[in-house]
Amino acid sequence: MPPKNTLPRKQQEFVRHYLRDLNAAAAYRRAGYAAQGNSAEVNAARLLRNAQVAAEIEREMQSRAQHLNIRAEDVLRRLWDIATADPREIVSVAAVPCPNCWQDAPYRDAPNPDCRHCCGKGKSQVVIVDLDTISPQARALLARVKQTKYGVEVEFHDQLAALEKVARHLGMFNDKLTLKGEPENPLQLLIQQVQGSTLRVVGSTDQL
Length: 208
Prior knowledge:
- It contains 8 helices and 6 strands, in the order H-H-H-H-H-E-E-H-E-E-H-E-H-E.
- The chain is α+β, with helices and mostly antiparallel strands.
- A two-stranded antiparallel sheet has the order 1-2. A two-stranded antiparallel ribbon has the order 3-4.
- Helix 1 crosses helix 2 and helix 5 (72-84) packs antiparallel against helix 7.
């Protein structure tokens, strides 16, 4: 861990505000720097490249992680669970009888194949499963469930964003967003660690 740096007051304020939400431009403004147009984004990015500021941010992040007993591997595994979860474990679309399917016969769970109104296709209905039965990965994906005047609303975490964070953490992207396919590909190793998979990355490079 790098030693604590003595930063000018505004830089200290920038670090403090940046660690609140990791929004560099907002932290730049909240720290009291004058900003016009897109100068906050430009100057905040420059501050993040400052060696002493970067070292202080790293020191504070490590201090918080140690205080909360959070390991990078735990965060990475959580992101991987979100990225690879199947939303259909929670919400699916089922075909159920239309209002005319079984008018002249006992009601059935499935659409009537002889129904002349829906031609046996029925109508679509969103089905939400019992959340106590879903996998840990699906629970990680689930952001919120709430009752609205239109029914139950289910929100998920962004899977693509989680996958990108995993890939960037593992150094899988270069400036051209190329997926590295070396034998020791970090994603392959992560898959083997998390899922015990024997999947291999095909090809030397895959353009995303």
